[in-house]
Design brief:
Layout lengths: L7 H14 L11 H8 L3 H13 L3 E4 L3 E4 L4 H22 L5 H19 L3 H16 L5 H24 L2 H17 L3 H27 L1
């Protein structure tokens, strides 16, 4: 088995991320760079780099005169975000399926292969983008630009929850089989089956995330 050598910055990122996701650092709690650097026995530079990366993951936000804080998360917000996603993304898929080409399907399969490799290599940040890219490929021929914009906004709001799902709620293993099933139904031209599978895929993620959040709140 290969030994994975992590940089100091990577260790700091993973440590702070884990503290946020497991609830040790509460939502809205200030993230003092000096205190974190002292606790982790590093300089402020890797802490600053870590907080900027976690901001990109949706787990940290920077505010004027306040600095960095852990973002607020709630089970109630998950319900609304993921139920809206399920409805609108199924709508996009229903309009896209008939127009998808063999090249589109080949690209989607390549993304799934890469996603599987990234999951094995523990590259969750990149995998979140690949996950979005896979879905976007399936919706790409819908010709529903306003719906697509709404979905994009919802996905941006849901991103931190999706990352939590991938990191802590077994999202990789569950999503792999569901993605393959959705893709196969699309290739078969089973519009109704593909849309139902997509909805269930998104709602399954919602349920997993809510269980995780309730544990964190408890």
């Amino acid at each position: 088995m290969a030994i994975v050598h992590k940089t100091r910055s990577q260790v700091v990122v993973e440590t702070i991320r884990e503290k946020i996701l497991n609830g040790e650092i509460k939502s809205g709690e200030p993230l003092r760079q000096a205190a974190l650097a002292e606790a982790l026995n590093v300089s402020r530079i890797p802490v600053r780099e870590a907080l900027l990366q976690l901001e990109g993951e949706g787990l940290v936000k920077f505010e004027p005169h306040k600095g960095a804080t852990a973002t607020e998360v709630s089970a109630e917000q998950v319900d609304e975000l993921f139920e809206l996603r399920a409805m609108l993304e199924a709508e996009l898929l229903s309009h896209s399926i008939d127009n998808l080409s063999e090249d589109d399907y080949s690209d989607a399969e390549t993304i799934l292969m890469t996603l599987s490799q990234q999951a094995n290599e523990d590259s969750q940040s990149h995998s979140g983008k690949l996950n979005l890219n896979f879905h976007a490929h399936l919706y790409s021929r819908a010709n529903r630009p306003q719906t697509a914009e709404l979905v994009k906004a919802l996905n941006q709001s849901a991103d931190r929850y999706v990352r939590m799902h991938l990191l802590l709620a077994g999202g990789f293993s569950k999503a792999a089989g569901e993605h393959k099933n959705i893709l196969e139904l699309c290739k078969q031209g089973d519009k109704e089956g593909a849309c139902l599978a997509l909805k269930q895929h998104i709602l399954n993620a919602k349920d997993d995330i809510k269980v995780l959040l309730l544990k964190m709140e408890g």
